[in-house]
Design brief:
Blueprint: H1 5-13, H2 18-21, H3 28-34, E1 41-42, E2 45-50, H4 62-72, E3 76-80, H5 81-87, E4 125-126, E5 129-130, H6 159-176, H7 182-193, E6 197-202, H8 210-223, E7 227-231, H9 236-249, E8 252-256, H10 267-272, E9 276-279, H11 282-287, H12 295-302, E10 309-311, E11 313-314, E12 323-324, H13 333-343, E13 349-351, H14 363-379
Helix pairs in contact: 4-14, 8-9
Amino acid sequence: MAYTRREFGKLAIAGLPAAAVLGSSESIFGAFAQAAKPNTVFNGVQIGTITYSYRSMPDQSAEATLKYILDSGISGIELMGGPVESFAGAPAGPGRGGGGGGRGPGGGGRRGEGAGPDPATLTASWNGKPCAPAAVGGGRADPAPGRGARGGGRAEMTPEEQAAQQDQANKLKEWRTTVSMEPFKKLRKMYNDAGVTIYAWKQLNPNMSDAEFEYIFNVAEALGCTHTTLELPTDEAQLKRIGDFAAKKKIYAAYHTHAQGSMTAFDKAFALSKGNMANVDFGHWVAAGNVGGTPMQFLEKYHGRISSFHLKDRTTPEHCALNLAWGTGETPIKEILQMVSKNKWKIPASIELEYDIPEGSDAVKEVRKCVEYCRTALSAPATAASR
């Protein structure tokens, strides 16, 4: 559910300096604007997060999401579509509500795992422990918090359920193609006033109509984004259509990768349109086996075509393709960040929280740990791999 201003004020006051709220007749949003603003630009590198990281938190409204971001100390984000559209008044339907982000009808696409590593390679161990059976066939040894293990697939929908889903999709399409941009500008102001830049949002689906494409890129402009993100399609016609639309709107389309990440994964997209960019996930890159080269080699070759990248600490297929707390896996996070800093590349690095949240903690606390890991990495002497 979305909070009223009064309810959100009660939620947020505890996290604000007393001077920001005492004696003020303004709303809690004004108090956010008065509070000390976060700054996660470390040694020239913008550390941000994709708000999917907060999917396990109890409220998925745009207001609550902003509170999570501020409590994590973050100043830049890739914003999932759910909170954006619910804030702007999108018609609610089954599974939408406050919106975890981009999974409703016509949303930003499934955040699937790709094909995953060959189960035959999952025969080794990590730190003396054999690979878990859950890794076989799924590309993950540990389901992300809030996801759970994938079972045997979804139950087949009844004709009535299919009709209801289509009706909801039609209503959402009608809303998207007629809504004013004013609510999105208001959302941007709320976030910007609190010290948070929205560098990307994720809701684009390759199967959308031209009118819906127009909506997606208009919202991106209203939010102040430099790019909009989506999963990497394989169809060349889709890649060209999306890229050319992005070039026309002067806001990049940046494609996210899972197990298909490699040195050649973006070749088609880059060749087909200058509007196509990468939103490469270097954690999944490692879990897929560093195909064709390391993350640093990809950065060196394609840094001019990367709008932003995702970070998580994963292990290689030979070590179970695990998703682990930062600093305990095999993703060269420190080397990646130091390389970006050394070369003064203006590429935001998005934390994506996917490891199991420890008992007694929550997503906000864990994202904050990841922020501190990045801060430390960027204040440390450069490693040989990052030079």
